[in-house]
Amino acid sequence: MSDQRTRIAELKSLVERFNEARDWKRWHKPKNLALSILIEAAELAEHFQWGNHEDIEKFGRDKWHEIEAELADVLIYCLAFANRANIDVSDAVKKKLNAAARKYPTSLFNKRVQADADIIHRTYRELKRRPFDKLRTSRNHI
Ligand SMILES: [Mg+2]
Is pLDDT above 60 for 138? Predict the structure, then answer.
């Protein structure tokens, strides 16, 4: 099973059958599934908590397997939510991307993104160099 050969409908069906076989669908109300998505997303994010970019580049294969499993948890709950709420995932994603493309046209956005990224990186590097007591002092003056 790979992304290249698997349809979203097939994944939705797998999730549906898995949950039906365990009689878990009775617990799968939209609120519970939405919270489960958040909880699993937090478990995914936990792998990156406190680490910087250099730490993350040093993650080994086992760590990435754990991260992959958490991403799968998020996606499984997203698919269960889509099943429960009768949402066509492909249609929803395409509609959202079309709306985002209208909101953020590439002709205006690309140059600004690079400028913003440069400012953010310079500010981050500067803040990292400054001792904590100087940060507190400068913040008190604001
Ligand atoms: Mg998990």
Answer: no
Query: What's the CA-to-centroid distance between 95 and ligand 1, angstroms?
Result: 29
Residue 44 · residue 70 · CB < 8 Å: yes
Residue-wise pLDDT tens digits, 24-72: 999 999 999 999 999 999 999 999 999 999 999 999 999 999 999 999 9
Class of domain 8-87: mainly alpha
- DSSP one-letter code for 25: G
Ligand 1 center to residue 70 CA distance, Å?
5
Ligand 1 centroid to 99 CA: how many Å? 31
* 119 vs 95: CA distance, rounded Å: 32
Instruction: Report how far residue 107's alpha carbon sits from residue 14's, in angstroms, rounded to the nearest whole number.
Output: 41
- pTM, whole model, 2 decimals? 0.76
pLDDT in tens, 87-102: 999 999 999 999 999 9
3-state secondary structure 95-107: HHHHHHHHHCCHH
Domain with CATH 1.10.287.1080 in the chain: 8-87
